[in-house]
């Protein structure tokens, strides 16, 4: 499958003005966000953009009130970086920012509500149960069928996730996930290929980059495999022929259905037995570390890391502006 993005709309970095690279924050994904943010900061500066690091939302709010920045590159993973808070702050002060708007950000931060939207549109996603305090987790597991995944509904980077194969292990998995805020999600564990599809805004709308099939050395793609291990394999494109076309179309449909825009990453499982593609979640501020997936997908079609950062930032300027 041949895939090309439209040429960049701008070549002069001055068009972006003074850019805040929002990173860090107090959440569970702080360290990953710091790594991502440093990479983005270095890449933008290397291309002449007047970019500056801002650690956390309170510092960003102060800077915006003081009129210090013209736009925001949001690479604050999880928490207020992806739940609509940063997006609402920027919109209140008419500051352009990268990524999805308030609705798409808030919705996709909640894995349960995202699944409900997808199911209402007949988009495929694994069976699930919402777990609230006092719920019978054993009954929920029987309804879905072991094995299951138990995870916080509003965390990322595989934080607080357990794979449960035996009924006796359910309570410990719930206790781990309950350390994090929000509801808990019990989901059918799909055994098969773990895939992800980066989506980036092009001039004609969202475009899926080649998929990546993730092959961790261990049993699954956990935090260590994502950010620490050098043994994880990334196969791009992850699928062949019509299957690759199908996963790209599904990712764009899921992205749009959830109200997303700008850029993001859609995670998908392919059932080993049936070949079915099942949607897991959308990340609206995906990782941009040395191990991250969106840069790998972009590189597969000739877009290097600095060029990718430029394109993400470019999406903060409406297409009609470039046409003037």
From TrEMBL:
Belongs to the D-alanine--D-alanine ligase family. PROSITE patterns: ATP_GRASP (PS50975), DALA_DALA_LIGASE_1 (PS00843), DALA_DALA_LIGASE_2 (PS00844). Its main location: cytoplasm. SUPFAM superfamilies: Glutathione synthetase ATP-binding domain-like, PreATP-grasp domain. It is found in: Cytoplasm. Mg(2+) 1 binds at residues 267, 281. The active site is at 29, 157, 292. It catalyses: 2 D-alanine + ATP = D-alanyl-D-alanine + ADP + phosphate + H(+). It is an enzyme of class 6 (ligase). Residues 115-314 form the ATP-grasp domain. Binds 2 magnesium or manganese ions per subunit. One of its GO terms (cellular component) is cytosol. Cell wall formation. One of its GO terms (biological process) is peptidoglycan biosynthetic process. This is D-alanine--D-alanine ligase. It holds the Pfam family Dala_Dala_lig_N. Its EC number is 6.3.2.4. Keywords: ATP-binding, Cell shape, Cell wall biogenesis/degradation, Cytoplasm, Ligase, Magnesium, Manganese, Metal-binding, Nucleotide-binding, Peptidoglycan synthesis. It comes from Luteimonas terrae. The keyword Cell inner membrane does not apply. Pathway: Cell wall biogenesis; peptidoglycan biosynthesis. Mg(2+) 2 binds at residues 281, 283. One of its GO terms (molecular function) is metal ion binding. Its cofactor is Mn(2+); Mg(2+).
């Amino acid at each position: 499958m041949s895939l090309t993005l439209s040429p960049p709309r701008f070549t002069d970095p001055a068009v972006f003005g003074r850019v805040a690279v929002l990173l860090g924050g107090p959440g569970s994904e702080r360290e990953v966000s710091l790594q991502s943010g440093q990479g983005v900061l270095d890449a933008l500066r290397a291309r002449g953009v007047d970019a500056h690091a801002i650690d956390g939302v309170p510092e960003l709010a102060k800077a915006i009130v003081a009129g210090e920045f013209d736009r925001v590159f949001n690479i604050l993973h999880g928490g207020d970086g992806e739940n609509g808070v940063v997006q609402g702050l920027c919109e209140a002060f008419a500051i352009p920012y990268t990524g999805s708007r308030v609705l798409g950000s808030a919705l996709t931060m909640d894995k349960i509500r995202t699944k409900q939207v997808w199911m209402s549109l007949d988009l495929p996603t694994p069976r699930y149960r919402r777990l609230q305090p006092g719920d019978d987790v054993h009954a929920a597991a029987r309804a879905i069928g072991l094995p299951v995944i138990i995870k916080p509904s509003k965390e990322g980077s595989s934080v607080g996730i357990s794979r449960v194969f035996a009924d006796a292990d359910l309570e410990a998995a719930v206790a781990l996930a309950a350390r994090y805020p929000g509801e808990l999600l019990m989901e059918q564990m799909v055994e098969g290929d773990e895939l992800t599809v980066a989506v980036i805004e092009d001039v004609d709308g969202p475009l899926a980059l080649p998929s990546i099939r993730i092959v961790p050395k261990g049993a699954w793609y956990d935090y260590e495999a994502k950010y620490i291990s050098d043994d994880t394999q990334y196969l791009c494109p992850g699928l062949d022929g019509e299957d690759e076309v199908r996963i790209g179309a599904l990712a764009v449909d899921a992205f749009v259905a959830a109200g997303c825009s700008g850029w993001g990453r859609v995670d998908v499982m392919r059932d080993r037995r049936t070949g079915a593609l099942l949607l897991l979640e959308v990340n609206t501020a995906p990782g941009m570390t040395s191990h991250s997936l969106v840069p790998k997908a972009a590189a597969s079609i000739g877009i290097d890391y600095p060029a990718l950062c430029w394109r993400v930032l470019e999406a903060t300027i409406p297409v009609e502006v470039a046409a003037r």
